[in-house]
Design brief:
Length: 111
């Protein structure tokens, strides 16, 4: 029973971590190499607290505004939200329109 449970947990963890998923602890390191940090939460959530040097670009507006804010599609972007769900969705949408270096903070951030 324990063996099966360990196997299931391992499979789910391996499936959930993709190549461009990062942990909150990796943000500073990637930003030191020129990445832009984008908070994809709502304006209300952002105003209640956000990571230093982050830009507010809500997930529901990101496709409309990203090219004006970050015209170079090769720029490193780090997206975050509270759980990792909205940032993962935004990451996939940006990749569909040609952004090549989009990182998602897995499981969101604690502020």
């Amino acid at each position: 029973m324990i063996y099966k449970l360990k196997k299931i947990i391992k499979e789910r963890l391996n499936r959930s971590i993709e190549r461009k998923d990062i942990m909150q602890s990796e943000i500073k390191s990637i930003m030191s190499n020129g990445a832009i940090l984008i908070d994809v939460r709502s304006p209300q959530e952002y105003n209640e607290g956000h990571l230093d040097n982050s830009i507010l670009l809500p997930e529901y507006e990101i496709l409309k505004k990203i090219e004006n804010i970050v015209p170079n599609k090769n720029t490193k972007l780090i997206l975050y939200c509270s759980s990792g769900t909205r940032s993962k969705k935004a990451q996939k949408e940006l990749e569909k329109i040609g952004y090549t270096n989009v990182y998602n903070v897995l499981n969101g951030v604690e502020i």
